[in-house]
Inverse folding.
């Protein structure tokens, strides 16, 4: 998830740059070290996209990425009473890189005022303003005026996306949602009783279903106009993608599916058409794998909910999405689960991401973890689930994400009879398989239960090409190493040593020695501080691969786009986790990256960038010089400068803003 600058990215010097006259004057008076403890990102970076070298994962800020989170209940934008800053801080601090929000027409009506998706009428934001003079909607607030825009809504939307961008978090913007029951319909601006113009489906109990179908032409036009406005507002951000509708499969399953497909394809066309005149093109996904043969082929991703095919429903689930849809060469996403305990959440997240998926969103439904009163989500089981996701993130990021693909064929036999399994491989180089013991059978069951915590023995028979290998069994709950086995194999089938585990385990087999072409993972946690001698001290995490031979330190001096093409500043041994730069020019901006190199000379991707300035020698000395050692700089990924503000002109609003200068 960390970025290195592209040589083609050019950015104006930001006001806090070390090259500025004011800051250089400041540096002449006091010794300062600046550290970026977050990603250093280029301005107006390319939006998150399908990775060109592996169409099942993302490229974000120049790096291969999968997304994972334990997210709040989708109300961060529509509920102006929810303080999203502590929530996003928690995600950032605990290594989460995704959040999801619902945007238009939906109120959960849960009755829980601590639920972010259950705002009071006064706090409920939509793209359109309230107009109390026209009478009240069913929630007691003024009716919605679908002929005007609510600028407070778009201001909050931009601020939220920017806040996520500042923290390296991607936002799934889910435009619409199925309206599940009458109470939600009573609060929706799509209900003709609730808007000034009186537009919307009026078909009795079926009205809420028809809101997501091309039934009422006036509402249909207003929905498309809202989509276009949202698209324009977020176009300059690189950390968003769109979902058309949350859970269309619950919208009267099997009834009027063709109309719902038309709704999806129409909204997709509105996004594509609007972005055709704008600088950036963003990914679009659907949550309708049940109708994939009828949807246009222009979607970039496929979303599903829940880890398995939910009994007595049409829900596909994560396991079947991997099995049946992986061959479509699309990013696969499990972007919602039921609120689960730490063990259940661990199983479904490891299952999906180690089976070839690229998105895991563990939903903290209602106010179970995050709430209006506790937006930081410190309540159980939040910390435990996020800790499990950090373990998964570390494990996945240590894999060759560009090289591995879904593959269970290399396992011939020997798994425990009751285990479920998911796996990937880069044939001849790297193999990984996850074994888990959760089951399901009850109607509408959405989490693995019961969990079998008894002892399980696996004696794997695997099919590998000739070569030397190292196999490591890991316990996902605490990342404890269960067994390490090194072997040289003549090719064909090989029987591994038995291993005993409980609940779940993962095995990874890596090629070693001659023939190993897989680079180790990049060093993690690169940071910069001043040592006692006022030299720049770099620190990084210990090597996570057994065959790392050394680390290479690269430095780029001066302002502007970093250039790390020169030979390394230094090379240090595999046991090193620090380096002191004694040659940095005083007062000059320095950027550093570190790479890992294995015994075969394979070099990893670059680490994140650490930015620092060596202290200036002061003559005469200045009192307390050097006392200020470090502080953070918020790096803006992109900045919206000219929001579209013109309101639509009619109850069937169309395009209302020029695209020039946007």
């Amino acid at each position: 998830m960390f970025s290195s600058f592209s040589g083609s990215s050019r950015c104006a010097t930001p006001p806090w740059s070390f090259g500025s006259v004011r800051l250089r004057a400041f540096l002449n008076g006091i010794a300062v070290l600046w550290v970026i403890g977050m990603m250093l990102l280029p301005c107006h970076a390319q939006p998150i996209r399908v990775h060109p070298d592996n169409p099942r994962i993302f490229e974000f800020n120049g790096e291969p990425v999968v997304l994972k989170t334990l997210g709040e209940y989708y109300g961060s934008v529509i509920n102006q009473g929810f303080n999203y800053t502590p929530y996003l801080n928690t995600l950032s601090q605990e290594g989460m890189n995704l959040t999801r929000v619902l945007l238009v027409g939906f109120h959960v009506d849960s009755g829980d005022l601590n639920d972010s998706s259950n705002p009071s009428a006064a706090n409920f934001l939509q793209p359109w303003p309230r107009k109390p003079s026209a009478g009240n909607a069913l929630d007691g607030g003024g009716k919605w005026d679908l002929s005007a825009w609510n600028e407070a809504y778009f201001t909050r939307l931009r601020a939220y996306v920017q806040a996520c961008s500042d923290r390296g978090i991607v936002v799934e913007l889910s435009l619409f949602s199925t309206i599940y029951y009458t109470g939600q319909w009573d609060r929706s601006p799509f209900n003709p009783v609730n808007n000034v113009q009186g537009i919307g489906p009026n078909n009795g109990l079926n009205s809420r279903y028809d809101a997501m179908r091309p039934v009422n032409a006036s509402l249909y036009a207003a929905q498309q106009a809202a989509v276009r406005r949202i698209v324009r507002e977020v176009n300059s951000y690189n950390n968003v993608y769109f979902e058309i509708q949350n859970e269309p499969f619950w919208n009267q399953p099997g009834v009027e599916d063709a109309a719902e497909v038309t709704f999806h394809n129409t909204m997709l066309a509105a996004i594509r058409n609007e972005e055709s005149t704008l600088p950036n093109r963003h990914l679009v996904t659907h949550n309708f794998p049940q109708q994939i043969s009828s949807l246009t082929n222009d979607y970039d991703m496929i979303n599903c909910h829940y880890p398995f095919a939910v009994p007595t429903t049409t829900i596909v689930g994560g396991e079947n999405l991997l099995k049946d849809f992986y061959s479509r060469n699309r990013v696969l996403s499990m972007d919602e689960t039921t609120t689960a305990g730490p063990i259940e959440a661990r199983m479904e997240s490891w299952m999906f991401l180690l089976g070839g998926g690229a998105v895991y969103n563990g939903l903290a439904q209602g106010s179970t973890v995050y709430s209006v009163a506790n937006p930081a989500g410190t309540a159980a089981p939040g910390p435990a689930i996020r800790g499990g996701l950090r373990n998964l993130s570390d494990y996945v990021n240590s894999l060759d994400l560009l090289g591995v693909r879904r593959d269970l064929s290399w396992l011939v036999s020997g798994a425990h009879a009751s285990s479920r399994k998911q796996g990937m491989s880069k044939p001849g180089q790297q193999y990984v398989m996850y074994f888990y013991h959760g089951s399901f059978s009850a109607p509408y069951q959405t989490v693995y239960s019961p969990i079998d915590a008894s002892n399980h023995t696996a004696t794997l028979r695997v099919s590998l090409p000739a070569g030397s290998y190292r196999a490591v069994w890991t316990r996902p709950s605490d990342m404890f190493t269960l067994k390490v086995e090194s072997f040289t194999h003549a090719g064909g089938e090989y029987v591994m040593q038995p291993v005993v585990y409980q609940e779940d385990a993962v095995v990874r087999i890596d090629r070693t020695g001659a023939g190993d072409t897989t680079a180790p993972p990049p060093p993690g946690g690169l940071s910069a501080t001043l040592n006692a001698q006022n030299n720049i001290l770099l620190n990084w995490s210990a090597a996570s691969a057994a065959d790392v031979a050394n680390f290479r330190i690269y430095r780029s001096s001066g302002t502007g786009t970093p250039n790390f093409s020169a030979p390394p500043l230094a090379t240090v041994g595999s046991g090193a986790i620090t380096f002191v730069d004694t040659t940095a020019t005083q007062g000059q901006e320095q950027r550093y990256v570190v790479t890992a190199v294995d015994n075969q000379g394979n070099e990893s991707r670059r680490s994140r960038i650490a930015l620092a300035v060596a202290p200036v020698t002061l003559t005469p000395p200045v009192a307390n010089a050097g006392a200020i050692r470090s502080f953070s700089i918020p790096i803006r990924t992109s900045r919206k400068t000219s929001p579209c503000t013109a309101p639509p002109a009619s109850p069937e609003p169309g395009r209302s803003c020029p695209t020039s200068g946007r």
In short: The chain is about 20% helix and 25% strand. The first helix runs from residue 21 to 27.
